[in-house]
Every structure is written in structure tokens, then in C-alpha cells.
Amino acid sequence: MLDATMSTRALHPIATALLRPICALAACGWLVGCSPRAGEPEPSPMPEAASDDAREGPRTARWEVVDMLRDSQAAQFHPSDGGGRAWLDSAKPEHPAVSEPGRYRIGFEVGPLGIATGGVVTLQVSPFWGWSTPQVEESDAPGYTLVSCDAAEVLLDAQTLGEQLLGIENTGRPLAPGERITIDYGAGPAGASADRFAESGSRFWIAVDGDGDGVRKLLPDAPGVDVAAGPPALLVVHVPGVARPGEEIPVSVAVLDATGSSGVVFEGEIALATSAPDTLGIPPQVTLAPADRGVRRIPARALAPGVAWIEASGPDGLTARSNPILVTADGPRVLWGDLHGHSALSDGTATPEEYLRYARDVAALDVIALTDHDHWGMVPLSESPEMQQAIAAATERFHAPGSFVTLDGYEWTSWIYGHRHVLYFDGAGPVHSSLDPRFETPQQLWAALEGREALTFAHHSAGGPVAIDWSIAPDPRFEPLTEIASVHGSSESADTVDPIYDPVADNWVRDALARGYQLGFVGSGDSHDGHPGLSQLASPTGGLAGIVAEERTRESVLAALRARRSYATNGPRILLRAALGAHPMGSVVPVAQGTGLDLPLFVHAVGTGPIARVELVRSGEVVDGLDAEGRLEVALERPVEGLRAGEYVYIRVIQQDGGAAWSSPIFFTGEALPAQ
Fold first, then answer.
1. What's the CA gap between 57 and 355, in Å, rounded?
2. pLDDT at position 471, please?
3. Cis (ω within 30 of 0) for the bond into 474?
4. 628 assigned to some structural domain
5. Is the pLDDT of residue 597 over 60?
6. What is the SS3 string spanning 211-257?
7. For site-directed labelling of 480, which of 1, 159, 347, 513 has its Cα 20 to 30 A away?
């Protein structure tokens, strides 16, 4: 009898169907590291002490995941494991739309060493985003699958082993080289539902345990289908955050499907109007042809100083309001960045090219990084030079200094010390796996980055899949910032907007600041849907980085991030400026020991929707606030008195719709600053 445990301990990183993956699709048979915010099953609870394991290490370590991954790494393959080839015989429809039912006949030919009695072939449909689980029990239910063989006297026992995973055990005579198995997935009247996000090459993964010892190996060339976008449902319009008077600016207009996928079939006219004609000059409409696939970029002109939004409307009730643009002669520019997200090369959606194109053309970002996991996906990135090269090559192709900044990077997915993503600002860099004993601690990671223009970012630090071990002080050379908002929620504090799931007590970012860590703030999507910059369209929350930098270059962005000239949002492009006297967000201000400093606070916030409150957080407490009464723009000035060494101050803006922004803190220290 086919056993889930024997058949799913396999090519790293396969989990057993009996182990519910942490922060992932339950019992899917393959570990994934994704957010539960986009509709997938809830993760297993993460208590304050994540494990009863007595091993030395942080209280939040997920030792059960670490052990499983290490066991998978150590698995020894039989020569017959992974033997054979697979192909797609037919697909109806040939290019399914998102969530559309279909039928897919997958052929498999036994490899040159055959498959022994007790050997197993598995079908793993893309395990991350909504394909129906292959099953053989209910012919009228989605995912019903028929399995057959073209040879005589062959006995096959097919069983569902977990979500999206079907095992086919050879219970009869050994299968000979060249014999063929047909897997008819979606053979019932309900068919098999496709992925809920559009992408190219959604894979049907085939793995083989040739000798029946419980260890299986993927075939290298899995067949797949392209999943098309659904019908038009959403309209989004984006403009730069800040422009100079007289400057030509791009306006991005995109018609998307209900979950934010691009590539919809659309033809029509979108009417445009500006809230401030003296500030922003725009055409009255934009026409989208079928060849545009729902996405156009048109020129506009920044005019007199002020703030403006664009209101857009199209057929069938499509409406949108753009993010605000501030036209100013001398105020600092704000670049919009998403510094953390995943493609189908780990546990996300889309190719690297599709991911970067969406960031540039649909989300109209200024800065983007693709940070696939080091070892968390169908094929470990750290073990695939080909995948690393594909990401690096796409990153360089899309990089356009002056208009669009791309950064090479990856996620250091430690289940002991917490997850950090690594960004390289000086070209492609190596992937240091957290499973490698040389790089398994944060200190080892930072040592490996010596000599590189690189930064690391702790994320979902207060809980979620695994919390950050804040007992290890971030290395200020590489980690001057932390990601406080993403699809996982906010790690700011217990009183934050949309707090992270499964929070760990005393592990919020405010607790890290109380330790004396001088960390600035960014948000980023941690998206897995292939929609960087717009992860909040298919999730209750998202994340973006507002980067205060004059130039769209890697050098300028790096300088701003190192100086903590940045702020976080949970998705909306809220404009935020904050300063104490002459000290902007991210500053470190010296204060003589035993004395207090009085400084004027200045805040300017422009929302994407009505603003509910603007709050002042001082050394862990909300000490002041302003009821914004639903205004779109708020400016305030007031004194902050008695600031002493060891304190910090930051601003939190909360919109009526739950959108939020957090300025990087301003820190006060009794130590003399180093000479510049």
C-alpha cells in the first residue's frame, strides 16, 4: 500500500504529507514559505516557544522544519530515482484562464533503469496557488485523475498524498524501460482548476522513486501550461511620488483581472481627470488597443507646485484614483520600491522576466528586487547555478539607470534565526544558503558579505512563519533597516495596524528598538502572486518602501537606505515627510548626557485615501496624535520637549481604509557621532 511518508521524503525540499508545513499549504508534500494572507490555508499556530526541542538556540526556532530540510539534503538517491521523461499529451483548454477548469493528459516514459515493484511516480501540480489536488476517489469532484499504463500485467495504485500531490505506486511486476504511464488529470466533469494567478509555464512536476525506498527525485524538465489572466475587473493608475515643475512624467494605466494579474483582453478608452489642473497636466483620455493587453504608459507634465491625484474611469464600471504626486521645486524625491518578493523559481508565481515587467509597467515602481528563497521551493536556488543566472540576467536586462532600478538578491530563509533577504547593489552576488554550516547564523551571513555593497533586511520579525531572533544585534554595516510591513502583516508593535499573525510576545520591532538597535523602516510586499508593488490587491495588506533619494540609480538608493532615509507603508503610496528641527527621518542626533533637547516636529502626509490619524511614537509609546478628520493632506508642527539620549521618535499615519505609513525613527544618542 502506498504510504505518504515513504513516498514524499524526496528531493530537497519535499516534506512528508503527514507534516503540516509551517506557513504554507497544509500537507502539500512540498515545503513552501509563503504568506497565508492570499487565501491559502492557515499555518499551524506558532506559540511563544515554537518547539519543545531542548537544543540550544532561540526560542522561536522551528527545529522540526530544520531537521526535515537537513534530512532531505542528506537523502541518497538510487540510480533509478528521477529516471524517465514526461510530456504534456494534451491540454483542454490549451491556455487556461486563472481558476478555469481543464483537462490535462500527462505522459510519462520509464527511464533506462526501470521502476521496481514498490517504486513510485508522483505528480505534483504547482503546489502554491490554487491548482486542484489530483485525486482518484470522487469522479465528479475537481481534480479527478485517471492513471493507466500501455503495458500488460502492470498494477498501479494511485493515492492522494497531500494537497496538489498524487502518488502512483507500482504494485505489480517491475516496470521496464520505455513503458509508459498516462496521467489524465481533470478527467471528471468538474475538470481541474488552474492557478488563480496568471503566469507562463505553470508546471506539472513528475518525480520518481525508482527502487521504492521512499526517496524520489524530480525529472528535470517538467511539462507545464501558460495560465492566462481572467476578464477585466480592476483599474489602477500610478504616477511618480514627487516631480519638479516643468518635468515630463509617466502615467501608468493598467486594466487587471480580479486578483491583479495583467495580460487581460481589453479594448477601450479610459477617461482621465486631474484634481489640480494647475499642478498636473494630463491628456483627457488614453485608448488601449488589444495589443496593449490592458497596460499603457503615457506622458504627462508637472506644472505648478502642489499636490494632485488622477481620477480614471472606463467601461463596465472601471474606476481608479492614482496615488498622489507632489510637485515641488526643492522637496526631496520619494522613490517607490518593493525590495522583497518571489517568483516561480521558489514559492511564488511568474518567471523573473514577468515579475520585473509587472513591477516596471503595471506597478510603475522605481526600485525592484526579486528575492527568491535560498532553499524553499521545488528546486533549491542555492543548488541551481542555472536559476541564479536566470535571475541575474533578467535583473541586468531590466535595469535602466535614471528610470528603473533593479537589484539582485535572494532570501536567506533561516528557520532558526528568522528570515532575511539580501540585496546586492554592485551586481549579481552569490546565494548563501542558511542550511550551509558556513552561513547558518546571521553573523556568518554578514561575514560572507564583507567587501560587497550589500544590505540585509529582517522581515516578518514579530511572528508569522518564524520570528527574528532579536537577541543577535543587527550588524549596522549591513542591516540599518528592517521590513515592518508585508503581506504577512505588520511587525511594528502590538497596537499596530493589521498585526502579523501568530505574534511572539516581546518580539515586535519596537522591542528591538528598545534594545538600542538603530533600525530604519521599509515595507515590501513579500509577494508570491507575481504582482510586486501591488500585493495588496489579492491580500488584505501589502508593503512598500518609500525611499528618499534624488536619483533612480543603485548608488543613490543604497546611500538613502544606509542613511535610513526611508519609510514603510502597508501597500498604499502615502507621501510622508517628517523631521525634528533640521533632522530628517533616520537621523542620529547627539544629546549631551543628562540633558534634554527641545525640537520642533514637522510632518506632512498625503494619503491615497482619507487620513484618520497622524500619531507620534516616542520611545515605545504613542504620546501625541492628530485626528485628521478624513482629510487627504495633513501638515502639522508642534514642539517635542526633553528628548534624551537613548530615545527615538517616529510618525505613524493611519488612513480610514486601514492603509498606513511609518517614518523611520530619529534616534538620540549620548555618543559623539563619527566624523563624516
1. 36
2. 98
3. no
4. yes
5. yes
6. CCCCCCEECCCCCEEEEECCCCCEEEEECCCEECCCCEEEEEEEEEC
7. 347
DSSP assignment, residue 141? S
Phi, psi of 477 (to 5 degrees): -70, -30
Residues linked to residue 667 through DSSP beta bridges, in sequence order: 588, 648
Concatenate the DSSP letters of all residues of 394-443 into one string: HHHHH-BTTTBEEEEEEEEEETTTEEEEEEESSS------TTSGGG-SHH
User: Cβ atoms within 10 A of the Cβ of 422, count?
Assistant: 27
* 351-376 confidence digits (pLDDT tens): 999 999 999 999 999 999 999 999 99
Whole-model pTM above 0.90? yes
Range with the poorest average pLDDT among 124-138, 263-277, 340-354:
124-138
CA nearest neighbour of 357 among 222, 223, 254: 254
CATH of the domain at 270: 2.60.40.10
* Measured distance CA(610)–CA(629) in Å, rounded: 8
Q: What is the DSSP string of 357-375?
A: HIIIIIS--SEEE---BSS
Contact at 8 Å (CB) between 190 and 65?
Answer: no
Burial class (CB in 10 A: 0-12, 13-18, 19+), 674: exposed
Query: Which candidate, 299, 303, 300, places its Cα nearest to that of 245?
Result: 303
Examine the pLDDT at 25 and tell me if it is beyond 60: no
Q: Are residues 338 and 445 in the same domain?
A: yes
Q: Which of 294, 312, 327 is the last residue of a domain?
A: 327
- Helix or strand or coil: residue 467? coil
Question: What is residue 383's three-state secondary structure?
Answer: helix
pLDDT for res 41: 30
What does the DSSP assignment read for 489-553? EE-S-TTSSSBPSSPPTT-SHHHHHHTT---EEEE---BSSS-TT-GGGSSS---EEEEE-SSSS
31 & 91 share domain: yes
Look-up of cell digits 508642527: 637
Rounded CA gap, 71 and 461, in Å?
Answer: 26
Asked whether residue 580 falls in the same domain as residue 567, the answer is no
Q: Is the distance from CB of 537 to CB of 356 less than 8 angstroms? A: no
Q: How many helices (H) and strands (E) does the chain have?
A: 7, 42
SS3 480: coil
Report the distance separating Cα 437 and Cα 449, nearest Å: 16
pLDDT computed for residue 50 by the predictor: 44
pLDDT band for position 129 (cuts 50, 70, 90): confident
Residue 320, strand partner residues = 312
